[in-house]
Amino acid sequence: MADNNSGIKPAATYAVVAIAAGAGVVPALQPLLLGALLKEGRLDAATLGHAATLESLGMAVTSLLATFFLRPDHVRRDILLALLTTFAACAFTLLAQGDAIVCARGLNGAANGILLWLLVGLMTRARHPAQIFAFYITGQSVAAFALSTTLADKVLPQYGANAGYLVLLGLNILLLFGAAPFAPKAFASMEQGASRMAMPPLWGWLALLGVGAQIAAIMAFWVYAVPLATHAGFTAGQGNHMVSLASSGLIVAGLAACLTASRLGPVPAILATSAASIAALLITASQSDSTAWTAALFLFAFAWTYAPPFHITLLLKADPSGRAAMLVSPAQLLGMAIGPMAAASVVSGEQYSGARWVAMGGFALMFAITAMIGWHRRLRA
């Protein structure tokens, strides 16, 4: 990875990317970890959704607030404080029940939001931001697959939910001592006023709504993937195993995005991933065969990871001024928070099918908005 314009060395760049990938991997593990807490009776269906929501909302809010209140001249200090906070949150989760778990996961999300904000700060100062994003999404996907497989096949069935959070503690320690010391002490300051911008036009806001809707749809289904599998007749162990196998789709999609992002336009990419996600949801609603479910979850995971690299280019197509593109991270993170919250509002007891319908609605909205943007741009061409 090449040096960037701010003079940050490759080792420091890799350190920030690795730490951000460790933070970004948490949403992919939520169905396994929160599902294990649900199975043990430490969460019910509603508080599971609330825990996922608050964790994602914490990431969204702190990443946005950090833009205004954190200075770029204390990067390593911010990383250390955030990693120590995630360590404390995971340690508290080991002892918590019910709403206390929700609070702990919210604290964890808030700290991870700082780490993701630092990745955005690195990319805005980089000569090749797309290259950095490619490393990030691929590393995150590999970590998600490795961790989900380990958790589903070995850790959670034998040792329970607390062992899963001990794995996260181990990851935290690895990043704290293996990556944080190599992180840059500071980022170069941006030009004064560079962060100020006018509001996006209507088409920009519409595209941001679509971005948030797609991410919300992903999380609305994903956090309830294991409970939905058990409702379809599978055991919790089978559900965990299918989720872990499907997580390999994250890696395949990350590599595919690296190869095709510069060649494929955002409109066909987003239309295809939205349609594929709806197809995957329909398969899970109509099939009770493990092979069909695993294939559907793989397709869902692939579309999940393949779509976000095209969000920036979709926003630039909708708003060539770039004002909407500057808000892509808050839109994605808010979608991560809203999706589980919306799903939690329509599930009750052991009836989880409402989460699937919420997800379908989000994907349908993104499909419609993307089609409108493509149509609008063709008319203006």
What does it look like?
The protein is an all-alpha fold and 381 residues long. Helix 1 runs antiparallel to helix 7. The chain has two domains: 1-188, MFS general substrate transporter like domains (Growth Hormone, Chain: A, Up-down Bundle); 197-381, MFS general substrate transporter like domains (Growth Hormone, Chain: A). The longest helix is centred in the middle third of the chain and has 31 residues, at 129-159. It contains 16 helices and no strands. The radius of gyration is 20 Å and the shape is globular. The chain starts with 9 loop residues before the first helix and ends with a helix. Mean pLDDT is 85; it is low at 191-197. It has helices at residues 10-24, 26-39, 45-69, 75-93, 99-124, 129-159, 161-178, 202-222, 225-231, 236-246, 248-260, 266-286, 290-306, 311-318, 328-344, 353-380.
Secondary structure blueprint with pairings:
Blueprint: H1 10-24, H2 26-39, H3 45-69, H4 75-93, H5 99-124, H6 129-159, H7 161-178, H8 202-222, H9 225-231, H10 236-246, H11 248-260, H12 266-286, H13 290-306, H14 311-318, H15 328-344, H16 353-380
Helix pairs in contact: 1-5, 1-6, 1-7, 2-3, 2-6, 2-7, 3-5, 3-15, 4-5, 4-7, 6-7, 6-10, 6-11, 8-14, 8-15, 8-16, 9-10, 10-13, 11-13, 12-13, 12-16, 15-16
InterPro entries: MFS_trans_sf
Organism: Novosphingobium umbonatum
Keywords: Membrane, Transmembrane, Transmembrane helix
